[in-house]
Every structure is written in structure tokens, then in C-alpha cells.
Amino acid sequence: MLAEKGTYFDPQGGLLLENYILNKSKYVGTPFYPPTEEGFAVFEKVLPMNHELIQRASKIPGLKIVFGTDAVAGAHGRNAEEFIDRVRDCGVDPMTAMISANSLGAEALGMFDQIGALAPGLQADMIALDGDPLKDITAVRRVLFVMKGGVVYKNIPSSLRH
To answer: 108, 8 in Cβ contact below 8 A?
Structure first.
């Protein structure tokens, strides 16, 4: 039905669940979380279900799957892990994953005329990676520089300049 209606689907739960699992000692006993580390076992059981959800969704013709996340405390700056997870653990094609995070995401936000592509008149927001994410998705962990609005915020290390 989502595909038929042109609705965007964001199965963002993976990073959220992984963050809880990796940082359970920080969450134990805090409001809304299990009182013991053993209580976090449910997250470990649900994570494969999220993988299956993404695998099934990616086979639905015309379904617009975007990349997003619930960046709770501890998850900021870790979006690359969710991206890798979608390709490595869920079988999403690397180019499809990149499109979901860029042009399709911009379209979902109603901002396709401003962001999401490298084209005249659009904001020059991009990253450069050390490696080819189509061949090795973990290259998304190795950001050499970030450009936002045409301004470079992180320079390429001199050892990697050619």
C-alpha cells in the first residue's frame, strides 16, 4: 500500500537498537529502559527482525525507502553504521542505499529543488570518502572532507593529498 500511494518508508530502527545494545550499561535503570542489562536482550532479538523488514521492503517494486535514524544519545555521528548495516546485513544494493540517503531523502523532505544532487543552483553539500562505497560500503566510515554550502569544514589530511 505504501508503494501504491507513493508514501516514503523509513525503517530507521537498526541504529537505534544497536545503540541500545552497545551502550546498555549507560541506559540500565534510567527511565523507560530495563532495570538490568539482561533486560536488553529483547533489543538483540528485535534487531534481526529489523534486518528482515528491510530485506522484504527492498523487494517491493516502487517502494520509496529513505535513510533516516533516531539519533538518540550515543548515536550521533554513527549514521555510517546504519548505512553499512543496510548494505551488509540487509542486502540493500550500495547505490540504492546512497540514493535513499541523498536524492530520495531530499525528495521526501520536499527539498529536491535545494539539496540531494550535485547540480547548478543546488546547495553544494557533499562528502569525499577514502574508498569506493560501491565496492566496499565501509568506505562511508572514512570521510576525508565535508562540504556544506560550498564551504569545506574538514580538510583532507596532507598525507592523503595527491
So the answer is: yes
Helix (H) or strand (E) holding 13: helix 13-22
- Phi/psi for 61 (5° steps) reads -60, 130
Q: Decide if 87 contacts 94 (C-beta within 8 A).
A: yes
Please say whether the beta carbons of 39 and 46 come within 8 A: no
For residue 27, the surrounding DSSP H or E stretch is: helix 24-27
Mean pLDDT for all residues in the chain: 86
Q: What is the pLDDT of residues 68-79, one digit of tens each?
A: 766 666 666 777
Dihedral of the alpha carbons of 29, 31, 34, 35, in degrees to the nearest 10: 30
- The answer to whether the CB of 87 falls within 8 A of the CB of 79 is no
